[in-house]
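Whiteboard transcription, Tuesday session. T.W. wrote the structure tokens on the left side:
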């Protein structure tokens, strides 16, 4: 069974998933189009790191960034390729949305890329709709942005 908890970036297995996520993202997109939070940013007060574990092993991560204005952003969503297909991504997304609602976040936004059809399918099946690029993603053709109302 997959269990999702809020953890610190130094928890067992987390930094390995961060590294894997970086390697995956940079294999698809140029560095100037790769917008992941740095590992050092995962423990900021406005960031909540969610970790999916199966039998105690970290298999996925996702971060909620609270913008402080009733919006939030999903960042760093990554599931170990060997653990995909077991529901970890959906569990992480559910956990992030629950946490966002608890923080008073009414709209959750995210950015992904056109070379990640599985991610796009996950987000759209979870109720996320395409929106215009926002923040650092404006003008980057490698960025696709989505949002979901949580209210």
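and on the right, the sequence the group agreed on:
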């Amino acid at each position: 069974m997959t269990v999702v908890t809020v953890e610190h970036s130094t928890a067992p297995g987390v930094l390995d998933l961060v590294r894997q996520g970086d390697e995956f993202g940079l294999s698809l997109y140029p560095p100037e189009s790769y917008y992941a939070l740095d590992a050092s940013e995962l423990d900021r007060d406005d960031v909540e790191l969610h970790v999916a574990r199966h039998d105690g092993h970290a298999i996925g991560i996702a971060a909620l960034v609270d913008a402080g204005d009733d919006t939030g952003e999903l960042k760093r969503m990554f599931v170990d390729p060997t653990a995909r297909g077991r529901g970890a991504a959906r569990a992480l997304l559910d956990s992030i949305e629950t946490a966002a609602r608890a923080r008073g976040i009414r709209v959750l936004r995210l950015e992904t890329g056109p070379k990640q059809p599985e991610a796009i399918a996950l987000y759209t099946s979870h109720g996320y709709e395409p929106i215009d690029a926002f923040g650092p993603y404006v003008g980057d053709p490698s960025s696709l942005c989505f949002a979901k109302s949580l209210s």
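Someone added at the bottom: The helical segments are 14-28, 88-102, 117-125.
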